[in-house]
Design a protein that fits this description.
Chain A has 274 residues and is an alpha/beta fold. Chain A is built from six helices and eleven strands. In chain A, the strands form two sheets. Chain A has a nine-stranded mixed β-sheet, with helices on both faces. In chain A, strands 10-11 form a two-stranded antiparallel sheet. The longest helix of chain A has 18 residues. Classes of the chains: A alpha/beta (274), B alpha+beta (213).
Chain lengths: 274, 213
């Protein structure tokens, strides 16, 4: 590898267009068969940024690890091994949905809840930054903040993820409030539809919400190895996360832009022949 | 005299606290009625203790719950407060630790399901509205989720007014505080007569003009 290849591609000198050859050959028509075929999400590292994941839950199975984000008195962040499991049930539910769609992906828990409400925005930002640094392929964020003081920093973290090929999948708000990070265009934002098929998802041509996935009456994993029926955008989000894991299992070289394009081309209201 | 004036203002603040409490109570009663639920509750976030407080309750175990406190970032209510995301859970299986534990522990009534929505006022997440155990025969719809959101907007405004009324009351009750001095000064001027009263009023107007210039 020449040293020039290590330089960031700020510009394209004459005669070097062949250096931009793409590793993936796009078919004439992108179908779900091409997008994920029989992928199981194997090799894809998924992070669940939430309330923790209950260890050994039968609907989740093995997870690759769990950390908790702690906020010190001066707002300093510490990321420590987490043995608490799930403090609510929601993170376990999200992990179970991802597992049901992409059974062989790896799942890692980053717990950003539990340290009180006061430091929760700091924990969310710290957890996201840490997860981006770890190089996860997909980060599921079924959460948001309304505090504008965090908007700029979350925006930077979302862009950093985008350029490092980490896909952020974030729950949209279904109430008329400003919240983040789902409103940023560098993330994949998700709202709910009412249909029962976990692989039905729609592209929304009127953003900021970009995709609608299954989010009503979903059977999910809950605490103590149990289950519940649930509704909310926060359950639609892990459906899209699972589908992202399937596509990246099939085409690991895709950038977030290419992945989002693939999701668009294979959405239930776009590729209507499937 | 000073204490009379303060009492009069305090009476106004107290009256508004009572009115806001009644509005909150009405909100939980209507939410419970609309969704044909067993109970409905509103939690207020207390930023001094970083806890959630049961502020209004309708239905099962109502009196036992009022004023009780739970952690602000664990359980269902804490998750909803922190993440600003509404959620609905039903048919929660066999686990005493789930989000209904805070209710179960104090009333002996264990809900099987709930709807929870954050109460957001401007940038602040000020509390959580929960509706417990709606009838199971009907499938939940996104339209119901929107209805819950509409209730949440109303409850958030009521909750914010209640918080402000309480802060005003705290200022009035704390006579050593700086703002308490203002109330005492107003009382003194009120007591004056004739030219002294006019001079006092002129002085206050001059101060106001100076501070707001």
């Amino acid at each position: 590898m020449s040293s020039a290849e290590h330089l960031p591609a700020w510009s394209l000198p004459a005669g070097s267009a062949e250096s931009l050859e793409l590793p993936t050959e796009w078919p004439g028509r992108v179908t779900r068969e091409w997008a994920w075929g029989d992928s199981t999400g194997k090799g894809v590292k998924v992070c669940i940024l939430d309330s923790g994941i209950e260890l050994g839950h039968p609907m989740v199975g093995e997870i690759d690890g769990a950390v908790a984000v702690e906020v010190g008195p001066g707002d300093e962040i510490r990321v420590v091994e987490d043995a608490e499991g799930d403090l609510c049930g929601h993170g376990t539910a999200c992990a179970g949905i991802v597992r049901s769609i992409a059974p062989d992906c790896s799942i890692f828990s980053v717990r950003v809840l539990g340290a009180g409400f006061t430091g929760s925005g700091t924990a969310l930002l710290g957890g996201l930054r840490w997860a981006v640094e770890q190089g996860f392929h997909v980060i599921n964020m079924s959460l948001s903040t309304t505090k504008s003081q965090f908007a700029g920093m979350l925006h930077e973290a979302a862009d950093a993820a985008y350029f490092r090929r980490t896909v952020l999948v974030a729950s949209a708000h279904n109430m008329p409030v400003e919240s983040y990070p789902w409103r940023f265009s560098s993330v994949i934002s998700v709202g709910s539809h009412e249909e029962p098929d976990p692989l039905t998802y729609y592209y929304n041509p009127k953003p900021p919400v970009e995709f609608f996935a299954r989010g009503v009456d979903v059977e999910v994993a809950w605490l103590a190895g149990g289950s519940a029926r649930s509704t909310g955008n926060s359950f639609a989000t892990p459906h899209m996360t699972g589908i992202c894991a399937l596509v990246l299992g099939m085409h690991p070289e895709l950038t977030p832009f290419q992945l989002k394009s693939t999701l668009y081309l294979t959405a239930s209201n776009v590729d209507t022949d499937d | 005299m000073t204490s009379d004036l303060r009492a009069a203002v305090a009476a106004g603040v107290m009256a508004s606290e009572n009115a806001h409490r009644a509005l909150l109570q009405s909100t939980v009663e209507v939410a419970r009625g609309i969704f044909s639920a067993q109970a409905a509750t509103i939690f207020l976030y207390d930023d001094e203790t970083d806890e959630l407080v049961f502020e209004a309750v309708s239905g099962l175990g109502a009196q036992a719950l009022l004023g009780n406190r739970i952690p602000s970032s664990t359980g269902i209510a804490g998750w909803v407060l922190v993440t600003r995301q509404p959620l609905v859970l039903e048919d929660v299986s066999h686990d005493p630790r789930w989000g209904g534990q805070e209710i179960a522990e104090r009333t002996g009534y264990t809900p099987k399901g709930l709807m929870a929505v954050p109460l957001i006022n401007e940038e602040d997440s000020v509390g959580v509205l929960q509706v417990l155990d709606r009838p199971q025969e009907s499938r939940f719809s996104l339209a119901e989720m929107e209805l819950l959101g509409l209730f949440a907007n109303q409850a958030a405004i009521a909750l914010d007014l209640l918080r402000k009324a309480r802060r005003a009351k705290a200022v009035l009750e704390d006579s050593d505080a700086q703002m308490g001095a203002l109330a005492r000064l107003a009382g003194e001027v009120e007591r004056l007569e004739g030219s002294k009263r006019q001079a006092g009023l002129d002085l206050i107007r001059s101060l106001e003009a100076l501070l707001t210039r």
